[in-house]
Automatic annotation (TrEMBL):
Species: Halomonas cerina
Alphabetical GO biological process terms: RNA repair; tRNA 3'-terminal CCA addition
EC number: 2.7.7.72, 3.1.3.-, 3.1.4.-
Known cofactor(s): Mg(2+)
Source domain of life: Bacteria
Poly A polymerase head domain mapped to chain residues: 15-133
Domain tRNA nucleotidyltransferase/poly(A) polymerase RNA and SrmB- binding: from-to ranges: 160-222
Family of this protein: Belongs to the tRNA nucleotidyltransferase/poly(A) polymerase family.
Keyword check for Repeat: no
Listed name of the protein: tRNA nucleotidyltransferase (CCA-adding enzyme)
Gene Ontology MF annotations: ATP binding; CCA tRNA nucleotidyltransferase activity; hydrolase activity; metal ion binding; RNA binding
InterPro entries reported in the protein's UniProt record: CCA_bact (IPR012006), NT_sf (IPR043519), PolA_pol_head_dom (IPR002646), PolyA_RNA-bd (IPR032828), tRNA_CCA-adding_enzyme (IPR050124)
Family annotation (PANTHER family): MULTIFUNCTIONAL CCA PROTEIN (PTHR47545:SF1)
Keyword field: ATP-binding, Hydrolase, Magnesium, Metal-binding, Nucleotide-binding, Nucleotidyltransferase, RNA repair, RNA-binding, Transferase, tRNA processing
Length: 380
């Protein structure tokens, strides 16, 4: 239903805000549309059929479009971290006051249902100048904005966007203030996960490194600048034909594959990573070790250890993508591994059972014959 004909909105002062306004003017795909309602009360929204969903401030879902309508509000710093705010929502809060609490000027634009731009903080100027600039000095009150700014840079870097120097300085001040330590792991990972899905994820980590945030949040990555540069260069070197939903975990795996087991697990625990990301990172690290070992002379025991380590016998779907990963740097080794895997996978336990093997002896004989098959493949 067109917005200007929606009876639920008759008499309400509503504005489209945030990403929908920004991305439409950039020619970027608009995924979600959010609205701000000025001059209304929660009771008035409920009477019109809107469903309240906000836990900390009044946000409502349209009963038909399911788009979010938030009452105009202001925020006042009351504690540490991104949750340390007192929210004030009332009919007296103006649109300009609501927009003032936002992080970047390009996110502080609004437009009427008819498309008229409301831009009190010159977001359009910054959009055209390809500049990420904070709305107000209140930027420094929310440590999450350091990560969000870096993430927006990762999204729009190819369009020529840069972070304004005065905003970079506030990001550095936030780091020095110690506010980053009050960010919970889930929020740090949520922003990082989004950044890994952006077109230029390496820019996110570079921006965090430049302001000192990476050393605070992910010291295992920041400790070795040369290794970090190499890791960021791997983010676009991925196996072919990976599914879209696997992109983020593959990029994470490539980012951390050079870390030793202890450092990688320490980082994963600090960020409370999902198990699927931890597992793939470990598999990528094992594959990297195998590839480096092949620089000397690869033997059947090393390949067998790798296959055991990635649980290839039970999770055979893991093998092909990891061999494709090897092929990015060493096509010859990848071909050897593919042949070794094909021959070893043909050695099955059922014929050995028929020969009389059982229990521990069955496992040992199965491993021995698979190792022989791998050795034959490497020799050929």
């Amino acid at each position: 239903m067109p917005l200007d004909r929606d009876p639920r909105l008759d008499g309400l002062e509503v504005y489209r805000v945030g990403g929908a306004v920004r991305d439409a003017r950039l020619g970027w795909p608009v995924k979600d549309t959010d609205w701000v309602v000025v001059g209304a009360t929660p009771e008035a929204m409920r009477r019109r059929g809107f469903k309240p969903v906000g836990r900390d401030f009044p946000v409502f879902l349209h009963p038909e479009t399911h788009e979010e309508y938030a009452l105009a509000r202001t925020e006042r710093k009351s504690g540490h971290g991104y949750t340390g705010f007192v929210v004030h929502a009332s009919p007296e809060v103006s649109l300009e006051e609501d927009l003032a609490r936002r992080d970047l000027t390009i996110n502080a634009m609004a437009e009427t249902p008819g498309g008229t731009l409301v831009d009190p903080y010159r977001g359009l100027d910054d959009l055209e100048a390809r500049r990420l600039r904070h709305v107000s000095p209140a930027f420094i009150e929310d440590p999450l904005r350091v990560l969000r700014t870096a993430r927006f840079l990762a999204r729009y870097a190819d369009l020529g966007f840069v972070i304004a120097e005065e905003t970079r300085e506030l990001m550095r001040e936030l780091v020095v203030s110690g506010e980053l330590s009050h960010l919970v792991a889930e929020r740090v990972w949520a922003e990082t996960e989004k950044a890994l899905g952006e077109p230029w994820p390496e820019v996110y980590f570079q921006a965090l490194d430049e302001c000192g945030a990476l050393a605070e949040l992910m010291p295992e990555l920041a400790d070795n600048p040369a290794a970090l540069d190499a890791a960021l260069g791997r983010l676009h070197r991925l196996p072919e034909d990976i599914a879209d939903e696997a992109l983020v975990r593959w990029r994470w795996a490539r980012l951390v594959e050079h870390l030793d087991d202890a450092a990688r697990e320490r980082l994963a625990e600090r960020l409370r990573l999902p198990k699927v990301h931890r597992d793939l990172a470990r598999q990528a690290a094992l594959t990297r070790c195998l590839r480096l070992a092949a620089g000397q002379e690869l033997d059947a025991t090393q390949v067998m250890t790798w296959l055991d380590g990635i649980d290839a016998w039970r999770r055979s779907e893991r093998v092909a993508p990891l061999i494709a990963l090897v092929s990015l740097d060493d096509a010859g080794l990848a071909a050897d591994l593919a042949l070794a895997w094909r021959l070893a996978a043909q050695v099955l336990p059922s014929p050995l059972v028929e020969e009389g093997f059982k229990g521990r002896a069955l496992g040992e004989e199965l491993a021995r014959r698979r190792r022989e098959a791998i050795a034959a493949a490497l020799a050929s």
